[in-house]
């Protein structure tokens, strides 16, 4: 496993950087034990495993599983035997059924490249502070997921006309009085041709951290919609009522002033992701030897597509278009790059700002809300170009 120091030095060498100014502990990283299947991650919690991807890894269309963030509300199942595992489908259906992994694998498989982002990504930038995992930039990643369409699974069970929402239950190990991880999505999203019961991630069976042997994959929506370690799918007449639907994962209906309380009846469930971009390189706080700097990163927009990414090298006074990467797939982030030559040595604030096909543009400041969800303020890094 890379230590933070090795990782920063390795990345620095690649882009001609002579030293990171920010102290390494600034990253909020907890020095933890090696975590099987993961490398170079920022540990946000070890009790329930929460791992953030260092933003420097946002430099490829597909994020390797070893760098893909992990968000767990409770303990991962201690044992998972894919041979014994069963998925039950019931509720508002004519033919309740139970499927095995082999049964799911025999169904038509569909592949979706999806940018999965935790609703709380960026929460650390909320002022005033909001409770929850203090994610900075990297509770996000893009992977190639495949498995049967949820629609095909539901068709086998024959959903009644009364079925309006689809509930997922995960097999997390629930400590004490914590409620189980159960959430629902509307039937329209559940029966979209890209919503999956995913069995594979980047061409290999899901690993334990990511939901072995099956997870829901609800593309373009907040990560919480994509229930891991799936054991039950239940069709409901109404939205599921439970902790992870309310008070969890709700947004205020109207913008609120930072610090204001919001009444439950003035909120709605968070669904699709916001438009957002990240600067993968140069890293924040670096000293750069060369004036020629390749600014690069990723941008995504949930259920919309990226229309443009702009870069500012003068703290937001002027903006120039970045070049978008050729590889493009709906729900997946788009690489972008901006070759730039600094006119003189000194300190610079570089910013990136994405606009999507729904005409949404990243805001200049954090759109505060009580849970710090869907924060998509323009990204910025400060660098020092040496003489
Ligand atoms: N599913 C279960 N069963 N338990 C969980 O804690 N966390 C959710 C979602 N699915 C969670 C879950 C949240 S909040 C996110 S952001 C994504 O899983 C993270 O997926 P990943 O850990 O595969 O990156």
Structural notes for this entry:
With 387 residues, this protein is mainly β. It has helices spanning 4-14, 101-106, 150-157, 187-190, and strands at 17-20, 42-45, 50-52, 70-71, 86-91, 97-100, 109-117, 140-148, 165-170, 182-186, 196-198, 200-201, 204-205, 215-217, 230-236, 250-252, 267-269, 276-281, 286-288, 292-300, 306-312, 320-321, 323-324, 334-341, 346-356, 379-385. The strands form 7 sheets. Strands 1-19-26-25-21-22 form a 6-stranded mixed sheet, covered by helices on one side. Strands 6-5-15-9-10 form a 5-stranded mixed sheet. It is globular and about 70 Å long. The two termini are 35 Å apart. The chain binds ligand MTE. Ligand MTE is lined by residues 68-73, 116, 118, 170, 172, 181, 210, 223-224, 226-229.
Identify the notable features of this structure and list them briefly:
6-stranded mixed β-sheet, binds ligand MTE, globular, 5-stranded mixed β-sheet, single chain, 387 residues
**Overall mean pLDDT:** 92
Give the strand order of the largest sheet, numbering strands 1, 2, ... along the chain: 1-19-26-25-21-22
Total helix count?
4
Major beta-sheet overview: 6 strands, mixed
Number of strands: 26
Oligomerization state: single chain
Low-confidence segments: 1-28
Which molecules are bound in this entry?
ligand MTE
Helical content class: under 10%
Category by helix and strand content: mainly beta
The sequence of SSEs as H and E is HEEEEEEHEEHEEHEEEEEEEEEEEEEEEE
The gross shape turns out to be: globular
Compute the separation of the termini in Å.
Answer: 35 Å
Share of residues in strands: 25-35%
Kindly provide the radius of gyration, computed on alpha-carbon positions and rounded to a whole number of angstroms: 21 Å
